[in-house]
Specification:
The complex is a heterodimer.
Chain A lengths: L5 E10 L7 E11 L4 E5 L6 H9 L6 E6 L2 E2 L7 E4 L11 H11 L4 H14 L15 H14 L4 E5 L7 H18 L2 E5 L3 H7 L2 E5 L6 E6 L14 H20 L2 H12 L2
Parallel strand pairs in A: 3-8, 3-9, 6-7, 7-8
Antiparallel strand pairs in A: 1-2, 1-4, 4-5, 9-10
Chain B lengths: L1 H18 L11 H13 L2 H33 L1 H14 L8 H8 L5 H24 L3 H9 L4 H39 L4 H10 L3 H29 L6
Helix pairs in contact in B: 2-10, 3-4, 3-6, 3-8, 3-9, 5-6, 5-8, 6-8, 7-8, 8-9, 8-10, 9-10
Classes of the chains: A alpha/beta, B mainly alpha.
């Protein structure tokens, strides 16, 4: 058995809020993610899901515990663990092509090869014909697709997604989920998805990690034993309904633990990061 | 269209009042006289020469202001230690209007040549450029920095592909303000501390009671200021990724 791609062991991270005691976002969090896995992390609002993803991305180190990537502590952000952000994070001053070329340029490719390399990823997310559009000229779904193309262009081993479909309408959301799944099957990379959408987590993942209320820790890990390859029809499967019921109850228990004011505060704090 | 009609009406009334002898044409010459002054000033390229002298001073001051303000703005926005030293100095000097520097400029550089005026336009252009470059860099979204880092960007790409283009809309606004301030200040400087330029030209004509020539100079100053502003707005529309309000 090879070492897991990600190994989080007892990680803790808290945030200082001026004039208040530090807010513990993630506490004693442990999770192993083998290469090629698709893991979703669900949890109540403000449970530290985004914090966890930023730990994996390397935007800050844990205060206690370890965040290992291929057995080595994560030292900072890098293209092998690229992040797809909720607000896509496209550079508004660059065209779709410019955005997708960015990681290719970052790894030192000559100007001549960039175009062809970027085109491959633009075609992969079906944005051909929009190479020279600016992000503000694209619809929400197209922006998110451009964000995905850009992330894939960095040739990551792992793709970390922070609620990437949150701002999309439900039809676009379904389509994007299928597209990501197709990419996952084709590319064989590791995907970690943070979401508060239970159906999305079940539909997309092999495993779903449920986080407890803040300070977030792993409450349970549920294997998603659904037949593949997955299409929307699987959502009407009896097993899908059972898993949804199980995860809903599990999540409700955690939501019930947070007083509302607390949740709002935690969410505000996390939003500031 | 309506604007043109009202301008024409005012000019017509003004001309008529002048011809009817209701005006002291020594103090307020009618439009016809001003037009004659324009022709008179254009004949020996005097107007053009003075305008070129003023413009050259503005552009020289702006050039040096860019050289100083861009690096200083970028460094003090991205390094808290430098900011702690630079910001108090800037905040002390910034409230002094550029024209209040004119007497000092005369003492330092004399009236002959361009140096006093160049210095004044430098002062006028520096502060808006610095302040806007500074806030442009400070306003970079953390999301974009994080995205760039997680896509593998090094320091060079963070500066050239993220920080600078992100700050560009602010910088262009700074450029527009700087050009406006520098243009106003160069006229003031030339009124006192020069022997060429549009400011000097209207002052010399005032002393000779050539009121029409004074007004002619004022119109030229306004027209050039307007054109410069429009030129930068064009630049803004072309290169600003932030949609204009």
């Amino acid at each position: 058995m090879t070492a897991p791609l990600f190994s989080v062991r007892g990680a803790c991270k808290s945030f200082r809020i001026p004039g208040k005691r530090p807010l513990k976002a993630v506490s004693n969090f442990s999770l192993e993610v083998p290469a090629g896995d698709f893991v979703s992390i669900i949890g109540p609002t403000g449970c530290g899901k985004t914090t966890l993803l930023h730990l994996l991305g390397g935007f800050f180190p844990p205060e206690k515990g370890l965040v290992l990537y291929k057995g080595e502590p994560v030292a900072g952000p890098g293209p092998e663990r690229t992040v797809i952000f909720q607000e896509h994070g496209l550079f508004p001053w660059k065209t779709v092509l410019g955005n997708v070329e960015f990681p290719i340029k970052a790894r030192g490719a000559e100007a001549g090869e960039r175009r062809a390399a970027a085109q491959k990823y633009i075609d992969m997310v079906r944005l051909g014909g929009f190479e020279h559009s600016y992000p503000r000229q694209l619809s929400g779904g197209m922006k998110q697709r451009a964000g995905i193309a850009r992330a894939l262009a960095s040739q990551p081993e792992a793709v970390l997604m922070d609620e990437p479909f949150a701002s999309l309408d439900s039809i676009t959301r379904d389509l994007m989920q299928e597209e990501i799944l197709k990419l996952w099957q084709e590319l064989g990379k590791t995907f970690i998805l943070v979401t508060h959408h239970i159906d999305e987590a079940i539909f997309m993942s092999r495993r779903v990690a449920v986080m407890s209320a803040r300070p977030g820790t792993v409450k349970e890990i549920v294997e998603i034993d659904l037949p593949g390859p997955r299409r929307q029809e699987v959502k009407t499967h009896k097993r899908f309904a059972e898993l949804r019921q199980r995860l809903t109850l599990s999540l409700r228990e955690e939501v019930a633990k947070i007083p509302e004011a607390e949740a709002a505060r935690a969410e505000a704090a996390e939003g500031d990061l | 269209m309506r604007g043109l009609i009202s301008v024409a009406a005012v000019l017509g009334a003004w001309q008529a009042a002048g011809m009817a002898g209701w005006l002291n044409t020594q103090l307020l010459p009618p439009p016809g006289d001003i037009l004659r002054a324009f022709i008179d000033l254009s004949e020996d390229w005097a107007l053009l020469g003075h305008a070129a002298a003023s413009l050259r001073r503005v552009l020289t001051g702006l050039f040096y202001a860019c050289l100083a303000a861009f690096p200083l703005g970028i460094i003090s926005a991205s390094h808290p230690r430098v900011r702690a030293h630079v910001q108090p100095l800037i905040e002390l000097l910034r409230p002094i209007p550029p024209i209040a520097w004119i007497p000092l400029a005369i003492l330092w550089f004399g009236i002959k040549g361009d140096r006093a005026s160049n210095f004044i336009t430098f002062i006028a252009a520096f502060f808006p450029l610095f302040v806007n470059t500074f806030s442009g860099i400070r306003h970079i979204e953390e999301l974009h920095i994080n995205a760039a880092k997680s896509l593998g960007a090094g320091r060079r790409m963070l500066l050239l592909d993220v920080a600078l283009p992100s700050a560009l809309p602010f910088v262009i606004t700074g450029l527009r303000l700087s050009l406006g301030f520098a243009w106003m200040s160069v006229i003031a400087a030339e009124l006192i501390a020069s022997n060429s330029g549009l400011g000097y030209m209207i002052e010399i004509n005032r002393s000779m009671l050539n009121t029409a020539h004074v007004i002619c100079g004022m119109i030229t100053i306004g027209a050039i200021g307007y054109l410069m502003n429009e030129a930068i707005l064009l630049l803004e529309r072309r290169y600003s990724w932030r949609p204009l309000q």
